[in-house]
Specification:
48% strand, 171 residues, seven-stranded antiparallel β-sheet, globular
Length: 171
């Protein structure tokens, strides 16, 4: 990906050698290589703020109030981890969330998010540290058209939730 920095990015020791530390407003722009019909994203995070933060976002911004959302974020005040997916018509039809028990800043967490549109049911799952902690299945809808994904930056209008912390080993 391409690192776009507002001066607050550094490389620091992480889970796997070095990780990317961001202080908000920075992002890694990736080519649009995701298969939006199904896929898996895994990464490590270590938040350094209690603010809400976006780890991964492929939301398609439009002029509409609602957008075709596809993001993974953390509400840092209560430790709620979200994985949200909208359909082609911008309907927020599926999402998994999990309140992390004893959530603490400055602690490493491993997240895996899985999605699948199979024509009959849409599935999202979210794992924390290797354990399934949230899932949702709903009736089928049209696969959304999304934008090229970003790490550490929110693409949804009106939501300022950039990453303030450290992230490592996106797959």
């Amino acid at each position: 990906g391409i690192l776009v920095s507002n001066g607050g990015v550094s490389y620091v020791p992480g889970v796997n050698k070095s990780s990317l530390s961001m202080d908000g407003g920075d992002k890694v722009e990736m080519p649009n290589i995701l298969n939006f019909s199904e896929g898996t994203i895994s990464f490590w995070f270590n938040a350094s703020s209690t603010s809400s933060q976006t780890f991964f976002d492929a939301t398609l911004n439009t002029s509409a109030i609602y957008h075709r959302r596809f993001y993974i974020e953390l509400n840092g005040t209560n430790g709620r981890l979200f994985f949200n997916v909208d359909d082609y018509n911008d309907f927020p039809f599926i999402g998994s969330y999990y309140n992390i028990p004893g959530y603490a800043q400055s602690k490493w967490y491993f997240v895996t998010a899985i999605w699948r549109y199979d024509g009959e049911a849409n599935v999202t799952q979210i794992y924390l540290n290797g354990t399934l902690v949230g899932n949702d299945t709903r009736s089928a809808s049209t696969v959304p058209i999304l934008s090229a994904p970003r790490i550490g930056n929110n693409q949804t209008k009106g939501r300022l939730r950039d990453l303030n912390g450290t992230t490592d080993d996106y797959r």
